[in-house]
Amino acid sequence: MDSYQQLLQQAKKSEKGDAPSTNVIKKAIASSKWKLIVTTLTIALLIVPTCYMLTFLYYAFGTKSTTLMDVTSQTLYVTEPNTTLEELEFDMEFSLFSMGLSFEQYKQIGDEVYPVKHYDTRFMLNNLVGKKITSKLEKSYPKYPTETNQWLVHPNNRGEFNTIEEQRKLKGLPNETVVEAYLSFNDLYTVDQVIQQMPNVDVTWAAIYTGVEDTMLSANGNVVSPIGYPVQPDQTNWSPFKGATSHEQTFLSILNFLVDYEETATAVSAHKNLDLKERIHYLKQHDMKTYGVVVTGPKAEVEQLQSLTMMKHMKLGEVKLWNWVR
């Protein structure tokens, strides 16, 4: 046998000997791939519930959920005139590193309370990242106000609405209706002085002068909005004013609480700027007085308020069929 044939035989033997080794390598590679896939899936399946658990612990046991609910509800009580919330209406749901919070907002019109807005909010950790409001109101209320489009107007300012036209609308309503009205005064008054002048209607909310409402601009030049507090006793479970001996002091306590969460409070409210520190500083040094209130009651009783010497502007709010049973 010549050398050439010997070389061919050796090559054939080499190929036959390598075949089992190649199969073993292929099987090992395939096995490694499956192990990697299984390991990755196992880790993923462990991470997801772990993250959900951490999210739940962050909000539930870290009291973040309660804090965020308090910031949301208390912001609306002092920035949204004549509104209230119900504790049992708060719905929470958790997802990865976030919490959804939905609730109903109510408004007193006449002698009854009606649902007026539905809020769907989402917080990513502490930050409000989503807010959807479904309104059931018949009127559009001020949002992102300028210096002049307030519904409650300081004596030094004028409203963009026409008071005479609003008075005509009120006069044209049937007597069998109850109304909500926004009343602005010619001077600053204590809330007690206002209530004494309006015994036949409910004064539901008072806008409080905080040193900036004569221009509606803060010291930094930010456009600010009215803030105030509910006047009537409020027995709603979620209300921070429930059982309060002094609504003025509760109002100031709320502002002091919100100042640490002002970014979130501003995002929750319909207003761009609250500038709470400046306004708190003023309120601590001066008596609280109001330049405008929200009232509700029978159409005829609200109409009679226009003759009061303190009255300057009137803006008509919501209207409902008669429900006044007093």
UniProtKB/TrEMBL annotation:
<feature type="domain" description="Sigma factor regulator C-terminal">
    <location>
        <begin position="170"/>
        <end position="318"/>
    </location>
</feature>
<protein>
    <submittedName>
        <fullName>Sigma factor regulator N-terminal</fullName>
    </submittedName>
</protein>
<dbReference type="InterPro" id="IPR029101">
    <property type="entry name" value="Sigma_reg_N"/>
</dbReference>
<dbReference type="Pfam" id="PF13800">
    <property type="entry name" value="Sigma_reg_N"/>
</dbReference>
<keyword id="KW-0472">Membrane</keyword>
<feature type="domain" description="Sigma factor regulator N-terminal">
    <location>
        <begin position="26"/>
        <end position="113"/>
    </location>
</feature>
<keyword id="KW-1133">Transmembrane helix</keyword>
<keyword id="KW-0812">Transmembrane</keyword>
<feature type="transmembrane region" description="Helical">
    <location>
        <begin position="36"/>
        <end position="61"/>
    </location>
</feature>
<dbReference type="InterPro" id="IPR025672">
    <property type="entry name" value="Sigma_reg_C_dom"/>
</dbReference>
<dbReference type="Pfam" id="PF13791">
    <property type="entry name" value="Sigma_reg_C"/>
</dbReference>
